[in-house]
Write a structure and sequence with these properties.
12 helices, 3 helical TM bundles of succinate and fumarate reductases, two-stranded antiparallel sheet, mainly alpha, two-stranded antiparallel ribbon
Length: 270
């Protein structure tokens, strides 16, 4: 236990933790962007992808979610503690001079991290919990049949119905300020990655002078790909390239929900 405490208190220990947690997040981001880009293949593909994810056992799904939140927490704790240590260790004059020498990406790591933290909270409530005011998608988006290999999937004599993730994403990004916030957040994420991915290798002792430029270029390339992948979806919605697959069904469901709310209110008033 004392050895673990010493490791967590040491600068190198926290740098390793930040690097390893960063690596896990980099891999998650790659998987997330590849999954989201299936929306360009058609509504059936993104809906089937989401259906299989949500069909995982609850213990697995919540285990992954809690692990991811824990990894984010470790990454933030390590970054904040190292930043505070650096500020205490450096004279004010040295800090001012060092800041001039920092790259834009390096200097933006802290404030981009704060904005990304706020974005993650919004993103969870927007598309996972689906409980942002005005975006209660459970009441606005009609379920559709699960399609696999071009055919409806049946459970016995009944079609397997799934939540229409395609139409939820399109409806969400049709709100201009949501798309704008999303694109800005992805730009900040890319800035964060362009510096963080390369620094990650340095923290683990895997970056030398020979590989420094190569890893820096790889980090920038990865960051650009992530930005284009994520940002292209809200941009595609606003441009009309991505559209809802079942607008009539969604309109009917929304109307039914409104009528139901009116009836309930009248019953309560009586």
């Amino acid at each position: 236990m004392c050895s673990l405490c010493s490791f967590l208190k040491s600068t190198i220990g926290r740098k390793i933790l930040m690097a390893l947690s960063g690596l896990a997040l980099v891999l998650f981001i790659l998987g997330h962007v590849l999954g989201n880009l299936q929306i360009y293949l058609g509504a059936h593909f993104i809906n089937e992808y989401a259906y299989h994810l949500h069909s995982l056992p609850a213990v697995v799904m919540w285990g992954v979610r809690l692990s991811l939140l824990g990894i984010i927490g470790v990454h933030i704790w390590a970054a904040v503690s190292l930043t505070l240590d650096n500020r205490r260790a450096r004279p004010e004059a040295y800090d001012a001079k060092a800041n001039v020498q920092k790259s834009f990406a390096s200097g933006a790591m802290r404030w981009s991290g704060v904005v990304l933290g706020l974005f993650i909270i919004f993103h969870i409530f927007h598309f996972t919990v689906r409980n942002v005011p005005g975006s209660e998608y459970e009441d606005q988006i009609a379920d559709v049949a699960l399609v696999k290999h071009g055919h409806d999937v049946y459970n016995g004599a009944d079609k397997v119905m799934v939540f229409n993730v395609n139409d939820m994403m399109v409806a969400g990004f049709q709100v201009w300020w949501v798309s704008a916030f999303y694109i800005v957040a992805m730009a900040l994420l890319s800035i964060h990655l362009s510096h963080g991915v390369s620094s990650m290798f340095q923290s683990m002792g895997l970056r030398n002078q020979l590989w420094r430029k190569r890893l820096d270029r790889f980090a920038v390339a990865y960051a650009v790909v992530v930005f284009l992948g994520f940002a292209s979806i809200p941009a595609g919605v606003l441009a009309g390239v991505l559209t809802q697959s079942n607008p009539e069904g969604n309109a009917v469901k929304a109307s039914v929900e409104v009528v139901s709310e009116v009836i309930v209110e009248e019953i309560i008033q009586k």
